Amino acid sequence: MKPLKEILKEVEILEVYPKDESWLNQPVYGVSDNSKEVSEGYVFIARKGTSFRGEDFIDEAVERGAKVIVRETPVETEKKLQGVYQIRVKDVKKALSQIVLNFFDHPEKKLTLIGVTGTNGKTSVCYFTKTLLQTLGIKTGYVGTIFYEIERRIPATETTPSLIRLAGLMKEMVEKGFKACVMEVSSHALDQGRITGLKFEVAGFTNLSRDHLDYHKTMEDYYQAKKKLFTEYLAPEGKAVLSFETESGKRLYQELKDFLSEDRILVVNNGTLRVEILGLEEGLEVELKFLNTGEAYRVKTSLFGEYQAKNLATVVGILMALGYSKEEICSRLETLKNPVGRLELVAEFRGAKIFVDYAHTPSALEHVLKSLLPLKKNRLIVVFGCGGNRDPGKRPLMGEVAENLSDYLIITSDNPRFEDPERIIQDIKQGLKGVKPCKVIPDRKEAIEAAINLLEKGDILVIAGKGHETYQEIQGKRYPFSDQDEVLETIKRLNKEYLK
């Protein structure tokens, strides 16, 4: 509990109603911008969302126990809210940030924050960074797509949750002695100002390719959202680590040079650090070349996937930006393993390898399939679908990529959400030329079983699109579903049948 005056520090207030003698001493037991999460003694912040007005939920918040309403619109003095203070602020987003961070005792000031944005690679880069910092003796939390980790693992609801959730997670990290937090920063969070108030000591950029155009509408809007991590959320002496693996990285470098000094920008992947692949079959083996000093380090890892070489370069850049030496970093790379659902080797069956991956964009799927080609001794079989109520333009592109790089294709359902799975599949098929064997099996469970039944010695099977997810979203409901579990259950069932 905190008195209202403590959580309103540095908040620009325009008016308060009713303004009696005791309003600043009102006890506050929690803060929320979601009326359904309000409890007795809470502050409800009526912010504007992408598809709703916070003011429309004031009555519900009051019914649930809110004692303070923070709003941007004029206070409704004519509307009696018994025992409730209404506070009008100049900027409700900034007020939310200040109120939340005040309430949680500013945990962001007690942690080294590292944020990574980009279309692909965020999860691997963040997870690898967290793992390496742990080996260096720095207790480090992780917030991202696969889960939130603070000694315990918490299922992730969003890649970058609301500041209210983030502040609560960071406060727990501080209380448990954590010194750093590595965070995936999504374009949605940046566009919506979801991390207002946070400043990152290191901000990383992986790449940019087509994704989320259902939300951003254009690639330029998508790029500008990503750029905000560096222009609005970098600490005064913070450093940027940029990968040149796509043209967007090079563009970002040129634009950041206008207001960041050269010593605050590290460039990897054909910049000052280049990673050359030496081997793939038994795990990724690379040579890291530091072009400005001529130093080179050979590293044998347990990672699968050619694309992880670029992610490793970004990770090395981030650790160097934090002040660690090349030797300290490179000597620990061999300890890394692919994160759950990122080219994860789930099983081997009949002499074939079965991988699960989160690839759900054309470029991500292309990277994954190209990474697996050197491993196959026979066929590369792909099972994938596309999500509903998301950018439909990428569906035929993913179909084209899958057909070009695979030997056998099974198109299935992903998270159809509120769309007809058959319609999504038809969109995917628009990208096919009919030059490879292809089956359509809308039921994902049946599709996985059919693919495993096809396996022969030397095959590679990749099940793409859902990765770490443990659900399938259909008509607004999430049903339990895990690609990994389905693979293992199918193999178990087939082995039993074989032994009969």
CATH architecture of the largest domain: 3-Layer(aba) Sandwich
What percent strand? Answer: 15-25%
> Number of domains in the coordinates?
3
Low-confidence stretches: none
Class of secondary structure makeup: alpha/beta
Description:
The protein has 500 residues and is an alpha/beta fold. The chain has three domains: 2-103, 3-Layer(aba) Sandwich (Udp-n-acetylmuramoylalanyl-d-glutamate--2,6- Diaminopimelate Ligase, Chain: A, domain 1); 107-335, 3-Layer(aba) Sandwich (UDP-N-acetylmuramoyl-L-alanine:D-glutamate ligase), CATH 3.40.1190.10; 344-499, Mur ligase, C-terminal domain (Protein-Tyrosine Phosphatase, Chain A). The chain is built from 16 helices and 26 strands. Strands 11-10-9-12-8-13-14-15 form an eight-stranded mixed beta sheet, with helices on both faces. A six-stranded mixed beta sheet has the order 19-20-24-21-22-23, sandwiched between helices. Strands 2-7-6-5-4 form a five-stranded mixed beta sheet. α14 links the parallel β22 and β23 (438-440). α4 (122-135) packs across α10 (308-321) and α15 crosses α16 (483-499). The longest helix is centred in the last third of the chain and has 17 residues, at 483-499. The N and C termini lie far apart (64 Å). The model has no long low-confidence stretch (mean pLDDT 94).
Q: In a nutshell, what does this entry contain?
A:
This protein is of the alpha/beta class. The mean pLDDT is 94.
Helices and strands, with pairings:
Elements lengths: L1 E2 H4 L5 E5 L9 E2 L1 E3 L9 E4 L12 H6 L4 E4 L13 E5 L2 H12 L8 E6 L4 H14 L4 E4 L4 E3 L1 E3 L8 H13 L4 E5 L2 H5 L8 E6 L7 H4 L2 H13 L2 E10 L3 H10 L8 E4 L4 E7 L5 E6 L4 E6 L7 H14 L4 H5 L13 E6 L2 E6 L4 H11 L7 E5 L9 H12 L2 E4 L9 H9 L8 E3 L3 H11 L5 E5 L6 E4 L2 E4 L2 H17 L1
Parallel strand pairs: 4-5, 5-6, 6-7, 8-12, 8-13, 9-12, 13-14, 14-15, 20-24, 21-22, 21-24, 22-23
Antiparallel strand pairs: 1-3, 2-7, 9-10, 10-11, 16-17, 17-18, 19-20, 25-26
Helix pairs in contact: 4-10, 12-13, 13-14, 15-16
